Amino acid sequence: MTVSMLINFIDEHCHYYYSGPLHEEIYGVQIAEKEETLIPNILYVTTGWRNVVMTQNICLLIVPEKDISEIVQSLRQNVMKDYQRNINLGNMGTLVTEHTEIGDLCSAAFKIMGNPVCFLNPNFQVCCSEGANSIEADTMKIRQNLKSKSISSGRKILLLEPETAFPYRRMLAPIFHAEGLIGYLYIAELFCSFVSKSDEYYAEKICKLLSTRESMRSRDGIISEKQRFVEELIEGSITDKDLLEQKMKHFGLYVRPSYYVFSVQLEDSFQTKTVVEKLSSLLENPVYEYRGYGVALIGEDDLDIEREEIKSELIEFLKQMNLYAGISNNFSDLQLMPNAYRESIYAVSFRKRLTDKVYLSFYREIAGIHMYHQMEEAGIDVSFFCDPVALKIERYDREHGTKYLNSLVVYICLNCSLQQAADVLFIHKSTLLKHIRVLEERFHINFDNHRVINSLRRTLEIFSYLGKIDVQKLLGNEQ
Fold it and tell me: Where is the PucR C-terminal helix-turn-helix domain (predicted)?
């Protein structure tokens, strides 16, 4: 790391003076000792000139005495970080020469940059991402946002400032092969702050390594035309309805009254091919690999996902393989598939937030959880939307060691069926009836008023999101 890069890490409020060449490579930082003879490639830090013997190409930083320890520690950490980044860059160079797949190269780029990264094609579609689930979920938003900016195909690295859709800075570095643009390196400032010169330097080095490729797409074999069509649907790249109809006819696909998207996480599976083949058989639809997921487009006529025998066999296989799958809401227009794909992924991620004992999740069942998550990200305290009565019950249980909230959860979830609720709670019917009377008399709940019940249902969902209750466990619905 050069001196000019390194001193950028010094707090702008600290008064310092530097003497020496700015482009000298620095391999260490140390405090200048009394009458010490200084040598090149070391950044020496001191509080005055008087005891320093200067020679040519010496790098000397003078700082206030009260700040010297903190500054030296900070600079040493950044030199070490730069050393590690160089090692990771060298490793990525080795991977490139070995024709490593794009996913592994993306992981290597993430290690270098220290922030989530994506590889984009020239049309800003995400080919691969690494570092944060939110990046995976925002692939369509990334593309739409970048396309709206009319970005030129020049060689300049762009630093995009925070905005409503992306409240953090982003870096966009073009990748060229034989003078032609083949894609972009996209970096999100989520984990650590950008240091412009340093991060731009490493982004440029990564792009140079990637320029040996002909494309940002995977080299893991030629995919079928039909699989590519499904990928185009997921990515929303087919905007012409006539072209969409022509492609459907070409692949022998019939228009269905509605569709679902099924997605299963494959990244932790060591038997991907076997899993994909088995799921294709169970779903009676081809499952395609797509960026760490197995994805299937299911027409309503092809598979009734409500049929218990199909669900049970599917769940049993997922459980056996320790895989988690999600199913989107139904939709009638295939141009809505990008949103449905995200729903199928959200179904898994938000269900896992509640429990890791459910292997097949439906987005319709966690849509409320998704809404509360977005509210929290916007800085809204979701507990404000809880029914005051439910809050009183939760507090009463905590203070008195009672379990009235559990009884309320199960009773409402089972449509106020006294016997069913008692069986699930493993208590006698008369005991549950006593609990219900306490809820009615002490907490004034009218179970015949549908508005009251709806308010309590919403609150129980929020409680579940906040981790106050585990509905799946209480109901014994864990798969």
Answer: 405-455
